[in-house]
Amino acid sequence: MDNCIFCKIIAGDIPSSKIYEDEDVLAFLDISQATVGHTLLIPKEHVRNALSMDEKSAAKLFARIPKIARALKKATKADGLNIINNNEEAAGQTVFHAHVHLVPRFADSDEFAIHFVEHEPDFPALAQLAEKIHEEIEV
């Protein structure tokens, strides 16, 4: 897409700090650097997000994560790493070209936080929801 910032990065119209590139994907340092080494992995083919991907294009993108994540963790000497994929505005997606965030973590000192709230499980409701989701899965 002509106005997509990630497509412009792929085309070389906007500079980036590339860490990995092959015929299908590009990984580069995020300019926001939520933590040191914060990286974005994107498909070279423009697609809105993971919800819009077919299995083949998703496999090309997500298959690259382990080796890039290992290299990123080693190079930054991180204690851990979050792998985050936001899909649609309600989930925090701000650039509508599929991408995965690889965020190195440095114990509690990095100030990056993801907050999960624990709830008492309602097993009958969970079973109903699981069945509803199962029915929607395309075979």
UniProtKB/TrEMBL annotation:
**Any Pfam family:** HIT
**Leader peptide range in chain numbering:** none
Motif Histidine triad motif per record, residues: 97-101
Span of domain HIT: 5-112
Protein name (record): Hit-like protein involved in cell-cycle regulation
Instruction: Name the species this protein comes from.
Output: Streptococcus ratti FA-1 = DSM 20564
